[in-house]
Specification:
Layout (H helix, E strand, L loop, with lengths): L5 H17 L8 E8 L5 E2 L7 E2 L5 H6 L9 E10 L6 H15 L6 E5 L5 H11 L6 E4 L12 H13 L8 E5 L2 E4 L4 E2 L8 E2 L7 E4 L2 E4 L24 E5 L7 H8 L4 E6 L7 H12 L3 E6 L14 H4 L1 E3 L5 H12 L5 H10 L1
Parallel strand pairs: 1-4, 1-5, 5-6, 6-7, 13-14, 14-15, 15-16
Antiparallel strand pairs: 2-3, 7-8, 8-11, 9-10, 11-12
Helix pairs in contact: 3-4, 4-9, 6-7, 9-10
Amino acid sequence: MRRDFPWTRRIAALALLAAAAAWGGAPEKPRVVILATGGTIAGRSVSAVEGTYRPAELPVEELLAAVPEIDGLARVTGEQLCQVASQDMTVDLWIRIARRVDELLRREDVDGVVITHGTDTMEETAWFLHLTVRTDEPIVLTGAMRPPGSLGADGALNLYNAVAVAASPESRGKGALLVMNDAIHGAREATKRHTTRADAFASPLFGPLGTVHYGDVVFYRESTRRHTASSAFDIREIDALPEAAILYGHAGFDTTLIDRVLETGARGIVFAGTGNGNPSAPAVRALARASSSGAAIVRSSRTGAGAVTLHAEVDDEALGFAVAGDLNPQKSRILLMLALTRAGDVRAIQEYFFMY
């Protein structure tokens, strides 16, 4: 993989500026649209030294005014798409966000999109966009762990770095990205691993795709799985998603929960099992009955890292189960819901988990 060191990129940038000056003008800056959805980055602190704050209150204009330095990176405009704490994110809002991102990135006057978002469900929104917006243009999500007005507030620098990533040509074709705490995470691997720290996000198995230090963007790797421009899912064809539920395995799991979930109309269940996605023996029997009745069953793991593999301790093929691989339960649910819009057979659903 090509690896440019920062000093080589700066020399190239200086050469470009010199060439542009020789032709009588500076190169045009990339055009980036910031879609604001709320979250801690748009919160109001009760005190600079307390963790108490009110999320999702500041409008996008105030977010941009707090970081005037981004004008040096790109031509930036802002749009308030919604204003929610991200624990209140919904499928309907995902569809609305994805459609707006798709519309913007089909325009010739937009080179990238940044979405400001609460951190609680940021990885889920990123993954949904990664699977449904068919583009090679950069899609970057960012937020904050500490609200504006608190000591050590991180939102302004995260936003600056996110714009730098969205404006970078190196970000093209890498799918939806999540920028927090100087790291560039891929939407497939990123997950929130801490409740309050600024380094709350991690990519447990493989690490970040790259870094961004005060706007200096460096990529080290990229995902080999299908996404965005190569995805089979297209947000322009999605009006709603079938419901799927996550059930969390534990000692003494109550198998009647499986029946209760299906009674609500859910078409699928992601079982976040212990270890290698393992349900208890009674849960295996209950899930098998659910599968035989037409529900899609996917085994994931509650551990937070590692892949759930076929047939390790469960005869998935005989029972009609699919496995999530290394996708966590919340991302497995999203892929399952999307897969159910195109397939009902468990073997076809399993192929989607292998591809994405």
